[in-house]
Amino acid sequence: MKKITTSLLALLMILSVTACSSVQEETFEGSAQGYGGTVTAKVTFKADKMTSVAVVAPDETEGVGSRAVEELPEKIVAANSADVDVCAGATMTSKAILSAVKQAIGKKNGETGSTTAMTEGTYSAVVAGHNGEMTVETTVDSTSILEVKIISHTETYGIGYGSVMTPVEVLPQRIVEHQTLNVDNVSAATVTSSAIKAGVRDCLTQAGASETAMSEAAPKANPTEAEYTVDIAVIGGGAAGLTAANTALDEGKTVLLVEKMGITGGSTVQSGGNIFAAGTSAQKANGIEDSAEDLNQFLMSYDEDQLLNAEMIQDYAEHIAEDLDYLADQGVQVTYVTTAQPTLTPNRLHLTSPKNEIASGIGGGITVPLTKSMLEKGGTLLLETRAEALLTDEQGQVIGVQAVNQSGETVTIHAHSVILTTGGYGSNPEMTARFASFNPIFNSAASSTGDGLTMAGEVGAQIFDSNGLQLQYVDFNTGETGSTASGLVVDMQGKRLANEHSYQSVSAEAFKRENSAVNYYITATKDGVCAEPYPTVQYGVTLENAVKASSLEELATLIKVDPAVLKATVERYNDLCAKGPDEDFAKPADWMIPVEGDTYYAFARYPVAAATFGGLVIDAQGRVLNQDNKPISGLYAAGEVALTGVFANVYPSCGLAIGNSIHMARNAAVTACGE
Q: How far, in Å, CA of 25 to CA of 20, rounded?
C-alpha cells in the first residue's frame, strides 16, 4: 500500500510539474494615439506575469518620444503593471504607451471594446496640440459619445483647422459617428489629430470608461472608386494644383485632383502665403509705383549663371497682377503689401495673412479658399491617394494616371490631360543626397518626395538637376537669419563672403558655393551692451549657452576657426566700417557696425532649404518637354516640380515660388484645356 501511495504521489508530482511547464505564452495588443500617430503595444503574458512588451511607434519624434519607446517597456515588465511613471519630456508618447498596454491587459482579462457604466455628463481635457494647448470637450451618456467639441486651440490654419478636411472640423464628427477613437488621423496633420483623440480619451476616462472602450476600428475615411474618367487630372493639391483645378473648371472641363495627404495645401500651406508681384491693384491702392517692366529687369538681374528662361520670366512679370485678381475672385484676399527685406524695394510682397505677418505656417490664406472654390465648382477631390504612374497610349501620349488609395487599392484615372503639381523633392533623402557637401536641413512638406519627377521621367520627360535652393542660414537658438541685421558673418575658415544685409537667400548662396555647412554671425558687447539694435542679436547675447570669449583668438578656438584668419577678417571689416563705404561687398554704410568691445560672440547658423529648384523642363505654356525639347502630348506641369528656367541658383525674394506656381498653373490649365 505504501508503495502504491508513493507511486501515486510521484505521478501527481510529475503531472503537476508538467502542468506548470505547459502554461502557454499569450500575446495581446493595444493601441493609442501618441504625439505623432498611433502607438501600438504587444504584451506577452505567461499566466498572470508579463514577460515582454514590444512597442511600435513609427511617427513619434526621434530623441523625444523614441526615448519613451525605449525606456517604458522594461519598467512595465519589471512592475508587471502599466502604472509606472511617464518618461520625462515625452509625456504624450508615454501616456499612449501606457494606455495601449492597459488595453492589452484588458483584452487578456476578457474586456471587450464596448463602453460600460459611463457617468453621463460633459467633460473637458487640456492636451498638447501642434502649436500649444488644446481644450477638448466631450459629452457622453451611459453608453455612447454624444458630442465632441474643440473649445480652444492654436493650431495652424489650413493644416489643423479651417478647411473641410482639417482635423478640428472632421475628427469630432468621425468619433461621434463611429463611436470610437480608432478613426483615421488626417495625414499631414497627425499631431493635431492625435491631440484631439487624446483629449477625448481623457474625457472618457473621467467618465469612467475603460482603456479598451471605444477602440474598435472605424471604416476608412475618404473612400474612393476604382476608376474615374475626366477631362483634366491634376496631381498634387498645393497652390499650383488648386489653381490649375479651378482654372480648368472655369474652362468648363471635368476635373479630378489627386492628393496623397489627408489635406490639401502641400508646401504652400506651411509657407508664409506671400506672392511676389508688380503693377497690382493692391500696390496702386497703397500708392506704390511699380511696373511689369521693372519686375522683369529685377528678376533677370539674377541670371548670372544663364539659367533663366527669359520668355517665362517676362510672361510672369506681365501677368502676375492678373493672377492676383483671379485669386481674389476665388476668395483669396491680399491683406497687406510690404517687402521681405529693406533692400527689396518697391514693396512687392503681397501678404494673404490677416495678421499682416511674414511667417511660415500661414499659407492657408491661399489654399483654404482655393479648395473651397474648387469643390463648389464641382471638382472631384481624392485625398490620401498616391499617384504612382502616368498612363500612355501607343503613341506615347499621356492619357491618365494610376494611383493607390489609403487601403492599398488601385485607382485608375482616365484623362484627356494630366497636370503635374506634385511639389519638390526636399523630403526625399535619396534625391537630396547630392547636397550633402554642405548638408542643408530641408524644411519641406512631407509630400515633397519627388513623385512627379519620377513619374514624368518614366515617360521620357527632360529633368534638370539644378544646384539652386531656396536657402537661408539660421541660428536655431535665436532665430537669427541675417536678413535685416548688420553684423559680420564668416564661413568655416573665418572669412567674410557676402554683403550681410542682402536678402537672406542671396547671401546664403555665397556660403553654399563654398560648401559651408555652418557660418557664424560675429558680434560684440562692451560693458554688457551690444551696439547692434536687432532683437535676435540682443536676445542672443543674453543666452547662457551663447558662445563667447574675451578675445577674438579665444572665440576662434571655440568655433574651430583659424584665429589669425578671424582676427584679420574682423580688422578689415572694422576698417570698412570706419571708412563708410563697404569696398568689398557693397554693404550700405548705415548697416556697417564695427565688431568691437570686451566680449565677443559667435552665433552658429546652419543651412535650411525651403524649396528645391530645377525639375521638369517646361515651356512658357506649362507643357512638359522631352529630351528633344518637344512637348509630351497630354502632360503639363507647374509649381515646384517644374522650377527650371524660373530660378537660377539664387532665390530673389519671398513669394516668388508661390507666385510662379499660381501663374504657371493657370498657363498649364488653359493650355491643357485648349489642346
A: 12
DSSP state for residue 163 in the 8-state scheme: S
∠ Cα 269 273 279 (to 5°): 150
Q: Is 252 exposed, middle or buried (0-12, 13-18, 19+ CB in 10 A)?
A: exposed
Start-end of H helices in 232-309: 239-250, 281-285, 292-300
Helices (H), 466-592: 504-513, 535-540, 552-558, 563-579
Task: State the DSSP code for 626.
Answer: B
Using DSSP, state whether 128 is helix, strand or coil: strand
pLDDT at 115 over 70: no
**Cβ-Cβ contacts under 8 Å for 164 (sequence gap 6 or more):** 170, 371, 372, 375
Angstrom distances, CA of residue 317 to CA of 127, 285, 320, 406: 47, 19, 6, 40
Burial of 436 (0-12, 13-18, 19+ CB in 10 A): exposed
DSSP state of 628: T
Nearest to 521 by CA among 562, 560, 480: 480
pTM comes to: 0.85
Quick one: which H or E segment has residue 469?
strand 469-474
- pLDDT value of position 385: 95
Task: Please tell me the distance from the alpha carbon of residue 195 to that of residue 125, in angstroms, as a whole number.
Answer: 10
Strand locations in 178-310, DSSP E?
A: 227-235, 255-258, 274-276
485 has a pLDDT exceeding 80: no
Three-state DSSP state, 89: coil
Vertex 368 angle, CA 271 and 422, to 5°: 60
Q: Are 164 and 157 in contact (CB under 8 A)?
A: no
